[in-house]
Amino acid sequence: MANTISPLFGHNGAPLSESADTARATLAGMLAVRQFEEAVDSLFARGLMHGTMHLSIGQEASAIGACAALEQTDFITSTHRGHGHCIGKGADLTRMMAELLAKQTGYCRGRGGSMHIADASTGNLGANGIVAGGIPIAAGAALAQKMKGTDRVVMCFFGDGATNEGAFHEAVNLAAIWDLPVIFVCENNKYGMSFSTEKSMKVEHIADRAAAYGIPGITVEGNDADAVYAACNDAVLRARAGHGPTLVENITYRWKGHSKSDKNLYRTKEEIEDWKHKDPIVKFENRVIELGVLTREECDAIAADIREKIRASISEATTAPDSDPAELLASVYRAIEGGN
Amino acid sequence: MTDRIITYSEAIREAIGQAMEADPNVFMLGEDIGIYGGAFGVSGDLYHRFGADRIRDTPISELGIVGAAVGAALVGMKPIVEIQFSDFTAQAMDQIVNQAAKIHFMLGGELSVPMVLRAPIGSGTGAAAQHSQSLEAWFAHVPGLKVVMPATAQDAKGLLLAAIDDPNPVLVLEHKLLYKTSGPVTEAAVRTPIGKSHVARTGKDLVIVATGVMVSRSLEAAAALSEKGIEATVIDVRTLSPLDMEPIEEAVRATGRILLVQEAPKHVGFMAEVSARLAEGKSLYSLEAPIKRLCGMDIPIPYAPQLEKAVVPQIPNIIQAVEDLIREP
Q1: Which of A153, A158, A165, A332 is best to mutate for the B interface (most B CBs within 10 A)?
Q2: Is residue B193 in a domain?
Q3: Which residue out of A99, A109, A147, A329 would a mutagenesis test of the B interface target, given it has the greatest number of B Cβ atoms within 10 Å?
Q4: Are β-strands B78-82 and B26-30 bridged in parallel, bridged antiparallel, or unpaired?
Q5: Which pLDDT tens digit goes with each residue over A60-88?
Q6: What was the pLDDT predicted at A340?
Q7: Range A20-315: architecture per CATH
Q8: For residue B285, what are the domain limits?
Q9: Which of A235, B73, B117, B327 is least enclosed by beta carbons within 10 angstroms?
Q10: Residue A259: what pLDDT?
Q11: How many interchain CB pairs under 8 A, A with B?
């Protein structure tokens, strides 16, 4: 049985914190990302998981708020820091965990790991290990929608560092000139590995770069799920109506290092602590409790339910068979139907 | 259906037209392929037949174009990318090597990238070092890509149709000196199978293995050698990846001598792989002389016509190499 959170699809545009159902789904989504990543961080620390991974703890409102603006049939492209996007689009937590644990039942059958989770069934065209690598792919998937005359959109996630890549420029320009149904969601967490945005760009906001392509750009408080949803919902409606792409910049912060080798030499403890006080989950919880939409007990019950899902993902994935080297050579090319 | 004599360019255009008529998901994108008709005139009138949507002109953005093709292919389209000169694939390498080639394997096998990338290769037009390279070995070295090099008008059509059918990314490397050459081409949409080497001529004295424009040069050399009493088998590799060694090994067993001819520089070139496979296999014991390679010089392609001709194998060089090989040991 699938072990997923139930993403919000087809929501009406009202703030996520306004009704119990949307508040519940949003909180569950953000908690799933947080707890999934805390779990893999711990598995890694205990030597039970190998390789590397990039954690998005602290950025959960961006992934979940943005995905809440999509329909089930829409597409996403994701990044090396992509667990949140996968979960936000409805990925199976057990298959994700199995992939990170190098199991045959993982999304990539153990061939991709944390950086390469894709899930055709939820429209996830893949996380990507190359900074900005997914941006032209998103433009192409959107071009296909336009050519086929569907009303599906593509949401393209990338970080601040990606906007200094040529791929960003080429792909956003293509999407702009062809009015493609794509939403460029930049998760500006202030650092491309160790290099800060203050050093890497001369413009104040990444959203300012939209002007160079003749498309709208908006800078959003990325730790506020309601704000992210509102901006992305506008951008999705615009894309779906055939008016082309939007650049949404979510200002956020990763609490953890870039990857497992990061010693945080480029930023201060105070800065990290300061951002922990802007925890997107605490912010959202406080809001819904204050609004009387959910009680503290209800929020705690959601967290407990997610903890159970994460625990189940680990126990099920751990007992799955290891990925199988025997099938590797035959897996490089898709077989031609009926032979060649 | 009959064969007509048409050019290599016309054969490619006919293949694209037939594929687009047969499947609405097939479309073409690239620089100046629309009203301009393509830098080498290959897309020609396709723009007028199929419109701007499916014969899609793009800005000068090779990385963006190939990436867009990868994305479109992932969701069910069958894009044919034209890169104006194969040298410009260097601008698009991330999408070719890190994305298109990897996605099917790396992402677990559910997704695939049925994309065709066509690009003109080779020297002979006075375009100098950044517009004249033969980069096929780069791509043949990357698991996940298929690489074909049509040497005749018939194969230009047949290999392209097979590439469009293929659910994997296929690079079709077309030699720019071949575009205006003509040959018999079947009118029907006949496929040339990918992954099969082709015996273009049979002779008892040695085998010449060639790719691209070197196939016709080798055939001409073989005709001249025949008048001198030397009979060569000529094998057109056609598909560099996946490579079919069987006819090559069989010809080595039959003749005992082999000459490998490519335009690309010798060092770590494609023929080094053919040579290594022969050296690893049993057919090595049939050799009466060492394996011989005739390749481009290990230098960038120069501009001046006499320099440009001097750095890649010409017909007299092939004849000379064969005569040397026949005299060995």
Answers
A1: A332
A2: no
A3: A147
A4: parallel
A5: 999 999 999 999 999 999 999 999 999 99
A6: 43
A7: 3-Layer(aba) Sandwich (3.40)
A8: 198-327
A9: B327
A10: 87
A11: 149
